[in-house]
């Protein structure tokens, strides 16, 4: 039986309902060599972000995927603290972001060392937190993968192939997504265990369809950040193109930012529930399809 690996332990499909597949609790977009990078008092993060989690719990959301990975301030200990404070499961990644957000140790590590690190976090747990990483989060440059980004991807594919974990990548260009899928398949893993994050940023819709037809998950994660008409129209366009079985929806919002005073002002994770889903229903999308997009697809994408 497949499970979602979360801060509160494995969760089966029957234990979950709506899942938000792309959000952030804590992010530091400064590069890892900057003073104060990823530093914050855990209590301050809980104080700011726990109320945002409580809001979505009341709307029926049952889990959230944290997309902050290595290089952009992943703090698994903070994710765990917020999760425990709210009794709410969070799925935390292993992996690392693109250049220049790559720590020196990752830059100098071999593919085998990176594979072993990701595999260890997926199977044994992240540092001293006691919970397993639930997926692998990467990124690629807009103009194509660098040699270092390719090395990280190859290591990720090998680690994922040993577990069944999904690999998600912040990748803006559809042609780069296709290159990433080529690398994953060359390493013996499968296109259907890849998430094309920020798919909406590729304006050639043909690439959206091509990625889904190849088996990858496509993710429109600009809910509440782009205009509601724009997002609704794109979702319906993807459904009409037959991509509904591979489509994920989320906000890419939050979050505590340690570069800002008191972590800044969080943006809520509620817009999908309160605005977009009612709008899609008003436009004729049936309840079964909405359930698939918000309950079934996220579980199938991240569970292993």
Structure description:
By secondary structure, this protein is an alpha/beta fold. Helices cover 41% and strands 14% of the residues. The chain is built from 10 helices and 11 strands. It has helices spanning 42-58, 76-86, 104-108, 111-123, 147-161, 174-186, 205-213, 228-240, 271-282, 287-302; strands at residues 4-6, 9-11, 18-23, 61-66, 90-91, 93-94, 135-139, 167-170, 194-197, 217-220, 247-249. Helix 7 (205-213) links the parallel strand 9 and strand 10 (217-220). Helix 1 packs across helix 2 (76-86), helix 4 (111-123) crosses helix 5 (147-161) and helix 5 (147-161) crosses helix 6 (174-186). InterPro entries: Metal_Hydrolase, Phosphotriesterase. Belongs to the metallo-dependent hydrolases superfamily. Phosphotriesterase family. Keywords: Hydrolase, Metal-binding. It comes from Rhizobium lentis. The modification N6-carboxylysine is found at residue 137.
